[in-house]
Design brief:
The chain is built from eleven helices and no strands. With about 300 residues, it is mainly alpha-helical. The chain folds into two domains: about 120 residues, Four Helix Bundle (Hemerythrin (Met), subunit A) (Up-down Bundle), CATH 1.20.120; about 160 residues, Helix Hairpins, CATH 1.10.287.70. InterPro entries: Ion_trans_dom, K_chnl_volt-dep_Kv, VG_K_chnl, Volt_channel_dom_sf. It comes from Mystacornis crossleyi. One of its GO terms (biological process) is action potential. It is found in: Cell membrane.
Length: about 300
């Protein structure tokens, strides 16, 4: 339902985000064929675009206080602020002592790490990322339960495994906090293998830890997956509704125009309605399978 100019602007914004992320990665690599001044110039260009985009959105907003409280706009602001703060800190501390310069360098490194927030700017243009954000916001209780179950299991199995393995010569279980790492990688089924049991009883405890981790992860993740599907279909329905409204506006505007144009517009309108009905039926099927019909109605 957007105009050609709006779609072009959105595409350019996505391109600048991807270029900025790639540039951020290339800056950390020493490449003989890629000069650092070129990467710096590309960084300045991306920052100029992000700044202009944010300022234009702010100027066009009807309610600027609400605009600044929006999560997406806060992410946009946090993505560009570290660059300007870094320039300010480096300009103000140019003639300081070596110790102060070292402290300033640490601050600058932390600020540069915040440039990774630019990846979240893609959420403005991606239905999947927005669905993920909605899912996390709606499933905070399930995520909290998942972390609680993992914490309890890690505490129990790490303690048991440490007392089983501590008497073995050359054991890698040197302390309970060290066993926490083993229990975390085992319950999440990662299993790096840097810490492993040697005794038979220890291997039995490890098996129980892995099995418990699979069960603990499976229960909340199934709920989160159903909620993600419902959020994704809801956003798709909203997009179809926007296209339908735009097609209806075009129909009303061109009622006195050529009949061929009206037929084409009616076809567009019919397709948008069918898309919305199709997505609505898929959403009902998804929510019915998860027992969440009452949530959406």
């Amino acid at each position: 339902g957007s105009s050609a100019a709006a779609r072009t602007f959105g595409t350019l914004s996505m391109v600048f985000v991807v270029v900025s992320i790639a540039n951020m990665a290339l800056i950390s690599v020493e490449l003989s064929w890629l000069a650092p001044p070129l990467l710096d110039a590309l960084e300045y260009l991306c920052i100029a675009w992000f700044t202009a985009e944010f300022v234009l959105r702010l100027l066009c907003a009807r309610d600027r206080c609400r605009f600044l409280r929006s999560v997406a706009n806060i992410i946009d602001l946090l993505a560009i602020l570290p660059f300007y703060i870094t320039l300010l800190v480096e300009s103000l501390c140019g003639g300081e002592s070596s110790q102060e310069l070292e402290n300033v360098g640490r601050i600058v490194q932390v600020l540069r790490l915040l440039r990774a927030l630019r990846m979240l700017k893609l959420g403005r243009h991606s239905t999947g990322l927005r669905s993920l954000g909605m899912t996390i916001a709606q499933c905070y209780e399930e995520v909290g339960l998942l972390l609680l179950f993992l914490s309890v299991g890690i505490s129990i199995f790490s303690t048991v495994e440490y007392f089983v393995e501590q008497g073995v010569p050359g054991t890698t279980f040197t302390s309970v906090p060290g066993a926490w790492w083993w229990a975390t990688t085992s319950m999440t089924t990662v299993g790096y293998g840097d810490i492993r049991p040697d005794t038979t009883i220890g291997k039995v405890v490890a098996f129980m830890c892995i099995l418990s981790g699979i069960l603990v992860l499976a229960l909340p993740i199934a709920i989160i997956n159903d909620r993600f599907s419902a959020c994704y279909f809801t956003l798709k329905i909203k997009e179809a509704a926007l296209r339908q409204r735009e097609a209806l506006k075009k129909l009303m505007k061109n009622t006195s125009s050529d009949s061929n144009i009206n037929v084409n517009l009616r076809d567009i309108y019919a397709r948008s309605v069918m898309d919305m009905l199709r997505l609505k039926s898929r959403e009902r099927a998804s929510t019915r399978s998860s027992g969440a019909d009452d949530f959406w109605f």
